[in-house]
Amino acid sequence: MQASDCQSLLKHMEWADALIWKTVLKLHDAQRDGPLLNLLYHLHSVQWAFLQVWRDEPLRVPELSSFSGLPAVANWARPCYPQLRAFVQNLDTGLLTKNIEFPWAAEVAERFGPAGPTTLGESILQVVLHSTYHRGQVATRVREAGGEPPLTDFIAWLWKGRPDPEW
Fold first, then answer.
1. Mind listing the pLDDT tens digit for each residue in 144-158?
2. Are the C-beta atoms of 73 and 41 separated by less than 8 Å?
């Protein structure tokens, strides 16, 4: 994996997340959907947490209870994207093979078994794939609330000419 691949994957992630947020915030029934709020909070908590680990910062993610609802979570989530872009913009491809230590690794190992080494590049891919997984769950909740989820596939983003996100 090259730094340019990471840049592309993260740009798609932001574009897809922006589409999901636009849909969710317009859908009246979604505003009272607790599972939807939990999913979106979790998706963005992971994005923030990984970014903090990559930058060797203290892990600081606010509790879900500190947010008044979906718009507040969206406002908290959005500033992560320019910081992710800035992080990968100047990333030396050689650093992608550097192993990363995660503060939550012991907890994961206790629950699921030993955790082997993970590189920076692999963890960037993890954030993108994790976000995709949970966007799919959000799309299901949108449909259950009477909405139509947007097409957020990577290939659709490519076919559209790699557009910037529209928040």
1. 988 999 999 999 999
2. yes
